[in-house]
Amino acid sequence: MSAPALRARLALVALFALAMAGTRMSHFGSAALLPDASLAVFFLGGSLLRRWGYFAGLFLLAFAIDFLLAPGVLEKAWCLSPSYWGLVPTYAALWLAGRTLAARGDTYPLAPSLAWAVGGVSAAFLISNLTWYWAAGPAGGLGFGAFWLAVARYYPPYLGSALVYLLPAWAGYRLARLRVPQTN
What we know:
By secondary structure, this protein is an all-alpha fold.
């Protein structure tokens, strides 16, 4: 890999790390906090970094942030319960969706980009909730159907929090790739 290509990859890793470090304290955001950028980071990482070693590094960073943000033993037990490891396949689904999009070529037209992003985020939502339900046992005594009715209301903000970052990233990428026509 050339030195400029390596510098570009490292700059992306640094940008992704900053995005997660700055937003990971709120899933959907609030008046004071931006929504968590992690879903977008893993999708974009799969698309732009592609290598699974970067995935592992970003996942370890996410874990470290979560461990440091959970202030006490009870919070750590809740946030870092056995269901936490469901984030590995959750984020891997996003990474794989990004890689699959990238394999189509690097022009990233809007319709396929949006389709792969929505598909990846939807798969991540299903995986994360299934693993939480499985690891927690029947969540709070809820049956499977009642559980899905309870968590379905979180799908729109889950998708929306990812698109808040993915749509501007797509637009920025497309603008950066515009070529100014040469005039003679």
